[in-house]
Write a structure and sequence with these properties.
Largest sheet: none
Transmembrane segments: 7-29, 65-90
Keywords: Membrane, Transmembrane, Transmembrane helix
Shape: elongated
Number of strands: 0
Radius of gyration: 21 Å
Strand content: under 5%
Distance between the termini: 33 Å
Amino acid sequence: MKKVMRCTALAVAIFVIAYFGGFFLAHWINDVLIAPGNLGWLVDAVYWFRDHFVPFIREPDDIEALYLLALLLMCWFGVLVALLALLKIVSRLRVRSRNRVDSP
């Protein structure tokens, strides 16, 4: 039961950290890395994509909402993958250090 509780707590912590980390990363990318005036090329690409593949979206606010949603999901997924990779590396290092201590 302790192991299940520990794994559940770890999973919840990873998802919460990944969500907030992805949210702040998306916010930083949107507001700091890509300045609002430098989005002209992105807007042109989005309009081209919209005209060819999704013609029922006509409002610029819809495009901005889709952009922000896609940015948030990509950042959330990226932070989640990074945390899981870090967890795997830490797990392997712990197993390796235990094996060194146990071997004579």
